[in-house]
Amino acid sequence: MMSKSLGLSAGRPSESRKAAALKAISDDKGSMVRVNFELDEAEHLKLKIFAAKARRSIAEILRELIDKNIPA
């Protein structure tokens, strides 16, 4: 009997990439906390379009703005 190993497994394929990305972020900055605030719909749409055009997440955009504009 032939055994085929396809390298397939159950689960979400993006999970390992997501875990690696989160680990890289947390190693650099320490533990993360969640921040919530409100934007009006127009501001949110503007931010979402900007992030999509840059092929980055909204969180990445906001972290960069904080790092560049708020002194340590």
From TrEMBL:
Chain positions covered by the region annotation Disordered: 1-21
GO biological process, one term: regulation of DNA-templated transcription
Pfam families: ParG
Domain of life: Bacteria
InterPro entries in the cross-refs: Arc_rbn_hlx_hlx, DNA_partition_ParG, Ribbon_hlx_hlx
Annotated protein name in UniProt: Chromosome partitioning protein ParB
Lineage: Bacteria, Pseudomonadati, Pseudomonadota, Acidithiobacillia, Acidithiobacillales
